[in-house]
Amino acid sequence: MNALFFEIISFVFGAIVGSFLNVVILRLPDPEASVVFPGSHCPQCKTPLHWYENIPILSFLFLRGRCRSCHKNISIQYPLVELTMALLSLVLFQRFFISAAFFIYFVFAAALLVIIVIDLYHQIIPDRISLPGIVLGFAASFLLPGLHWQDSLLGLVIGGGIFYTIALAYYLITKRQGMGGGDIKLLAMIGAFQGWQALPFVIFCSSLLGTIVGLAAMVKQKKGGQTRIPYGPFLAVASLLYLFFDQRIIQFTHWYLTRPR
User: Fold this and answer.
1) What is the mean pLDDT of the chain?
2) Mean pLDDT throughout 171-182?
3) Is the pLDDT of residue 38 over 90?
């Protein structure tokens, strides 16, 4: 069959998983909620959704962004998460085709997407994602081409260790908690999936993005140094950039470090 058919399948598959990720995003921060039961329902009026109200992306368009029962607005988050996961799935397929790497990095990308949205809303990174992610990332290093288990092990140890040291130093100097434990475990998970080689770019890129957004937030909120923004989304975005552009990043870094002075 031609590649376009499989690209469409990968896109649809990603959108379907994205629909489930919306459930995870909504319920995972609540320790008493289940991501399985009850079935999909309107978060406003609790009315169970029919199958035709639960078609990824399309249902939102058909319903014009409103619940059929209570007519309240449906958050734009739902189609955005579904579309984002669909695009991630498509790009992963185009790079890895149908392989162990595709499925492993699909799970990794889905976890990062959930972390981004939950951290933006609640400023937490659930241990129920990051801790199993660390174990899964290390186990995956035995299956992923180009990632040795030693690099994965160093990645999770160094990734967690760097941020733990920074957080500890900040607390000892200021007597305030700066970086949360969730960020430490997230970087350890990223190191496990992508190896220690990814960490310099992930840390630099996330810091740059965080600084730009942080300065904008300081101006808007007018809280000065008391402005707080979640750092997890920047780590996750930087990790995704490295996942898709690692060869170009490595080539640019090599060129920059070896160029004539």
Assistant:
1) 89
2) 71
3) no
Q: Name the token pair of 241.
A: 């950039």
Contact present, 148 and 141 (Cβ < 8 Å)? yes
**Full-model pTM:** 0.91
**Do the beta carbons of residue 212 and residue 238 sit within 8 Å?**
no
CB 171, CB 199: distance < 8 Å = no
C-beta separation of 202 from 242 below 8 A: yes
Question: In sequence order, which residues have a C-beta less than 8 Å from that of residue 222 and are 6 or more positions away?
Answer: none
Specify the pLDDT at position 215: 87
Taking residues 113-141, report their average pLDDT.
96
What is the mean predicted confidence (pLDDT) over 201-225? Answer: 85
Q: 3-state SS of the chain?
A: CCHHHHHHHHHHHHHHHHHHHHHHHHHCCCCCCCCCCCCCECCCCCCECCHHHCCCCHHHHHCCCECCCCCCECCCHHHHHHHHHHHHHHHHHHHHCCCHHHHHHHHHHHHHHHHHHHHHHHCCCCHHHHHHHHHHHHHHCCCCCCCCHHHHHHHHHHHHHHHHHHHHHHHHHHCCCCCCHHHHHHHHHHHHHHCHHHHHHHHHHHHHHHHHHHHHHHHHHCCHHHCCCCCHHHHHHHHHHHHHHHHHHHHHHHHHHHCCC
In this model, does residue 221 exceed pLDDT 80?
no
pLDDT of 249 higher than 90: yes
- Sequence-separated (6 or more) residues with CB below 8 Å from residue 203: 162, 187, 238
How many whole angstroms separate alpha carbon 234 and alpha carbon 164?
17
Q: CA 56, CA 86: separation in Å to the nearest integer?
A: 10
Decide: 22 and 81 in contact? Cβ < 8 Å. Answer: yes
